[in-house]
Amino acid sequence: MGIKDSQSFKSALKISVFYLIFGMLWIYFSDIAVELLSSKSSHELTLIQDYKGWLFIAITAFFLFLLCYRFLHKGFIDYIERTNEQKTAQMLLEQKNALLNSIIDSSSDAIVIKGLDRRYILLNDAAAKLSGLPILEALGKTADQIFPPETAQMINTDDTELLEKKSFAEREELMVMPNGSKRINCVTKGLLTTEDGEVFGTYGIYRDITKIRENELAILKAKEHFDYLAHHDPLTNLPNRLSLIETLTQKTSTTQRDPFALFFLDLDRFKEINDSYGHRFGDTLLIRMTHLLQTVFPPDTFIVRTGGDEFVMLMSCHQDKNEIDRIMHRLVNGLNLPFHIEKRDVYITASIGIAMYPSDTDNAEALLQKADVAMYNAKNMGKNTYSFYESRFTERSLQRTTLSTQLKKALQNNELELYFQPQIDIHSAAIIGVEALLRWHTPEGMVSPTVFIPIAEESGLILEVGEFVLRQGCLIAAEWSKEGLWPGRVAINVSARQLTHIDFLKTLDRIILETHCNPSLIELEITESSIIDNPTKTILLLETIKTKGFHISIDDFGTGYSSLSYLKNLPIDKLKIDISFVRDVTHEPKNQTIVKTIIALAKGLNMEVLAEGVESQEELEFLRQNGIDSIQGYYYHMPMPLAAIEALFRREF
Predict the structure, then answer these.
(1) Would you say 206 and 109 are in contact if contact means Cβ atoms under 8 Å apart?
(2) What tens digit of pLDDT does each residue of 29-42 get?
């Protein structure tokens, strides 16, 4: 018996007991009252009896009314309350169901529910969209009736494992949808249970991550591509200096100390060939030289182009110098034959220095230095030859020290001078900037920057040289602006050592104050190598420089090692595509790919992009069609001294 029935029984019993007691008491006391009045006539006695009965009926009716009202009113209220509770519960249930359905239907994830018979009993809109199957066509069917056999088997296996282990599952699955499309889904599956823990079905939540995985794969391929670019020379496809350093470090850090020879090769008079026939011709010669080296050296030799006309080879050996002599003779004999390029026969020679590991040194950096010293000895021997390292070659270091001393005097004697090469807007052909280039004049002639800049780097003079270039560039820019001669920017190269010096910001502030130059007139060109050692610190430094009003560009982009994760955070205004990529760009598909990629990368990062070394109309048109902003090269102007560039400005503006 329920609680409500028990209460009703008790209420009825109370009324009956009350009526029984009241009736018995009434009869007893009313009869006593009648006996007391028995002296009356029979007619009066009859009336008294009638009155007694009517009074009993009236009193009992009144009490019955009170009792019934009390209990029936309470029961009615209970009924109303129960009814209201049921309605409220029903409304809450409906709201809960509506909320649940709304969440399921509005979810971007596909949600499905199946009974224990593995038939689908619920699918949301996202599930229909993912599968390409209308909801009504899927309800009541099993996976075998909906999906291709391979996918259906995978789903059934998952469901069996889920029901057997009574567990929760989450995994990625490649699924073939009913419409034939292949999707990668992040799948979450679980059991549906009652409050008592009884399983009555399963649910599945499917999130389509196909695009995410495709994007990740694209990023991985792009990373591999840029990693390849970072470790290889784009012209010859040989490993570059970064790869050499990594390989040397690995070889010299091993405990086995397997012996090898390091060859440092420098082409003789290569600059003359470039100057005489152009860079395209020189690039072809470098490629032919690469093929010759690959033919002469054993197949397992690690051949590197470290830059310019320099190559380094690492060859395993067991201190057998006779074998090295035979290889060198084959190389020299190969160089005795002309290279036939663009219907011309050209001869080139090479000077090669050789250092042995570990007999000459067991240090990677020292090994390179000793091979370099040996190479200079080969040049001193008349070129087109090779030389093993000997300790006496340290005299060569003394010579380089002498040149360093002469450079110090050149700074004091004003022998250094700035030349300027215009930068041209691709659309208007107007001069929008100039790059300041350092030149060193001596009584014996001009010393190439490729000679004295490395010496300045090694000796530490690069800080003084760099400050000289900055000061002169700012002085000239301020004077041009004051005279209204030209309103554009002057691009000034800043070396990695100069940029990372602790006083660089103070030097910048001092030069700007002393020259009265507006920083907006100056564009500081940094190299990719400036970023490598401490990217986080470099980003903060460049942001500080930007706040001062300077423009910033990355020079020779693509020839060094750039981390894209840092590049996107660098406050850079411009990327400068290195000349090695522009050379022969209309005939070299790989160079085209690299140039297009750099331009797209710059545009995507809201940076300007300039191409260096443009020499032909074909190169110009290719760059224009692919969205370059500006160019710099012999096609328009060679580097020129101050008087010449000012004369050009007066004609142009």
Answers:
(1) yes
(2) 776 766 666 555 56
Write down the pLDDT at residue 407.
84
List the one residue out of 581, 574, 579, 620 whose CA is nearest residue 597: 581
Q: How far is CA 89 from CA 78, 127, 564, 630, in A?
A: 16, 31, 59, 74
- Structure tokens belonging to residue 502: 């602790």
If phi > 0 it is left, if psi is from -120 to 50 it is alpha, else beta; for residue 308 that is left
| Distance (Å, whole) CA 75 – CA 487 | 98
CB atoms within 10 A of CB 636: 16
**Rounded to two decimals, what is the model's pTM?**
0.46
pLDDT tens profile 593-642: 989 999 998 898 899 999 999 999 999 999 999 999 999 999 999 999 99
CATH code for the part of the protein at 400-652: 3.20.20.450
- The DSSP line for 577-602 is E-HHHHTTTTT-HHHHHHHHHHHHHH
419 three-class SS: strand
- Residue spans per domain, the chain: 3-103, 107-208, 217-389, 400-652
| 349-357 vs 385-388, strand pairing mode | parallel
Q: 170-196: string of b/e by CB count within 10 Å (b at 16+)?
A: eeeeebbbbeeeebbbbbbbebeeeee
Q: Give the separation between CA 89 and CA 92, rounded to whole angstroms.
A: 5
Confidence of residue 514 (pLDDT cuts 50, 70, 90): very high
Alpha carbon distance 238, 228 (integer Å)? 10
Measured N-to-C along each axis, helices 241-253 and 364-380 cross at an angle, to the nearest 10 degrees, of: 120
Helix (H, G, I), strand (E, B) or coil at 194: coil
416-440 pLDDT tens trace: 999 999 999 999 999 999 999 999 8
Beta bridge partners of 202: 114, 191
According to DSSP, the residues that pair with 387 across neighbouring strands are: 353
Averaged pLDDT, 495-509 = 89
Lookup result for tokens 């399963």: 202
Architecture of domain 107-208: 2-Layer Sandwich (3.30)
Q: How many CA atoms lie within 13 A of 130 on its CB side?
A: 26
Fold of 217-389: Alpha-Beta Plaits (3.30.70)
Cβ-in-10-Å burial (0-12, 13-18, 19+) of 602 comes to buried
400-652: same fold as 107-208?
A: no
CB neighbour burial string for 491-506, b if at least 16 within 10 angstroms, e if fewer: bbbbbbbbbebeebee
Contact 175, 158 (CB under 8 A): no
Give the integer Cα–Cα distance in Å for 614 and 421.
Answer: 12
Are 578 and 556 in contact by the 8 Å Cβ rule? The answer is yes
